[in-house]
Amino acid sequence: MLRVTADEHSYNYKHTSDLLLSLTRSRSLPKGLQLHAQIIKLGLQTIPLISHNLINFYSKTQFPIYSCHVFNESPYKSATTWSSVIASLAQNELPSHAIQFFRKMLENGVYPDDHIIPSATKSCAILGRCDIGESVHGLVVKSGFEFDVFVGSSMVDMYAKCGEIKYARKVFDEMPEKNVVSWSGMISGYVLLGDDEEALRLFKQALVENLDVNDFTFSSVVRVCGNSTLLELGRQIHGLCFKTSYDSSSFVGSSLVSLYSRCGVIECAFRVFNEITAKNLGLWNAMLIACAQHAQPDKAFELFGEMRSAGIKPNFISFLCLLYACSHSGLVEKGKYYFEMMKEYGIEPGAQHYASMVDLLGRAGKLEEAVSMVKGMPIKPTESILGALLTGCRIHGNAELAAFVDHKISELGGNVGSGLLVLLSNAYAAAGKWDEAAKARKMLRDQGLKKETGLSWIEDGNKVHTFASGDRTHLRTEEIYKKLDELGDEMERAGYVADTSFVLKRVDGEEKNETIRYHSERLAIAFGLITFPHERPIRIMKNLRVCGDCHTAIKFMSKCSGRVIIVRDNNRFHRFENGVCTCRDYW
């Protein structure tokens, strides 16, 4: 326990200030509260330096309301004091309060300095209030801080997170001096926007200029490689992380786990995870979702138990990972168990949790239970929830339930995304309701929407080869089709029979067979077979769900060719080996 003498005169503000700084570094709240009581007793709270350090202490110990109390009781409010309280609120996820204090500061005639502005811009970014951010930018120019590297970096980050990438780039380009924060903020902005190509280009430029990148930069760029499934480039950047020792960072680690998981190399994801000693919640969640996507629900449940034993409190994402794992493995009771467990942690289920539960029940054939959940939940059904219902309709050919969802879409004014209308059309078609399917497709056209084109791609070195269904644009088209036809004959001799019921169009049988034979994933696999050595697994990425017939066909492809084929569709990973898929035909 902290020992404080009763002799008031033995204290001076310098010693007290130093002691406060020490307690701030150690995050010792009980001792800090005791010292605060002694400060009040001695009347030292009126000294600006003491007030500043007290506000900072409560900020670091995550008690921003106490920071506000200290600020309000301080008779002398300098720019430093204002900066401390605004930073306390911004850093502790109270951005609205931070903006309120920023406005009060201006009303009191205190002009912002280079320490206050980054806290204000951070709050604008969290709130997505670019309008307020533009006003702050105006103050920056007036105060002459537009060329300050820290202020400029905060402006870049604010505009990028608010989706105003052009403004972010303008500020970035006009900065006479750039540091790792400004480069990282700009790269991250392109990642958030989905402009992976520009993010990678900027990262390469930073390396050319010998920038000392940090863990945030590496995390952003690794995330780009994961989003674009650029395994080879991701491995090269992982090598740079290793050389700079950033591979031990949980922040970078979670991105690396995601990269290897998205590229189908789950064993590398586990290796990265196991090598990091200080695991944060983001890293645990990344590994949980990796297990869920790779059909390893038992491993996900085991990791969740280890996470809780390590004292890591799960959040809403953790439970979303678990529900996803249950949904894609048909584990209904386990799903219900984890859905109820959320209450123990004070987490209210959101739309994504309900969508996962509805998906779980629908896939398992418990359609009535799924509908009851939708009717009884405290939120209005979202597109993801209705889409989950339609997945159950399609799998089980339930036209009545499709009509129920159709009515719900009408209640939304029909103003929904193309994906949901395509699901509705497919659900009707799977139930043989062709007229209703046609109406759903008409709704798609009437809204000026288009069905997303199914694409599959495969990486060869640093080059990505992309295929569409029936694609004949590739330089090796003749070889690809020849290989596919040869393999098709071998598959038929092994017992494969095309299931043309998965062609959800009213066309004759021969056309259906021709359509399904040259789906994009089969073309990509054929390219892999003629390009890669036998011992190398063939990794295919697809933007849509693999159809049932292609799933069966790829099992035969793996058996007849003796190759390991890994396919990632928009739902999960499928690892085909010797005629068997890890999803156990449940996806």
The strand line-up of the biggest sheet is 2-1-3-4-5-6
Roughly what is the average pLDDT, rounded to an integer? 87
Instruction: Indicate the low-confidence ranges by residue numbers.
Output: 1-10
Specify the number of helices. 30
- Major sheet attributes: 6 strands, mixed
The strand count comes to 6
What is the SS-derived class? mainly alpha
Output the radius of gyration.
Answer: 29 Å
Overall 3D form: elongated
- What's the N-to-C terminus distance? 58 Å
Helix content: 55-70%
Strand content: under 5%
What are the key terms here?
mainly alpha, 6 strands, disordered N terminus
Explained architecture:
This protein is mainly alpha-helical. Among the domains are: 349-452, no CATH class; 455-581, no CATH class. The protein is 64% helix and 5% strand. It contains 30 helices and 6 strands. The protein has a 6-stranded mixed beta sheet, with helices on one face. α15 (250-262) runs antiparallel to α16 and α19 runs antiparallel to α20 (332-341). It is elongated. Mean pLDDT is 87; it is low at 1-10.
Summarize the structure.
It comes from Cannabis sativa (Hemp). With 587 residues, this protein is mainly alpha-helical. Among the domains are: 349-452, no CATH class; 455-581, no CATH class.
What is the fold's blueprint, element by element?
Elements (H helix, E strand, L loop, with lengths): L12 H14 L2 H14 L5 H13 L3 H10 L5 H13 L3 H13 L8 H12 L2 H14 L5 H13 L3 H10 L5 H14 L2 H13 L6 H13 L3 H13 L6 H13 L3 H10 L5 H13 L3 H13 L6 H12 L4 H10 L9 H13 L3 H10 L6 H14 L2 H13 L6 H13 L3 H13 L8 E6 L2 E6 L8 H17 L15 H9 L2 H12 L6 E5 L5 H14 L3 E4 L4 E5 L2 E2 L6
Helix pairs in contact: 1-2, 1-3, 3-4, 3-5, 4-5, 5-6, 5-7, 6-7, 7-8, 7-9, 8-9, 9-10, 9-11, 10-11, 11-12, 11-13, 12-13, 13-14, 13-15, 14-15, 15-16, 15-17, 16-17, 17-18, 17-19, 18-19, 19-20, 19-21, 20-21, 21-22, 21-23, 22-23, 23-24, 23-25, 24-25, 25-26, 27-29, 27-30
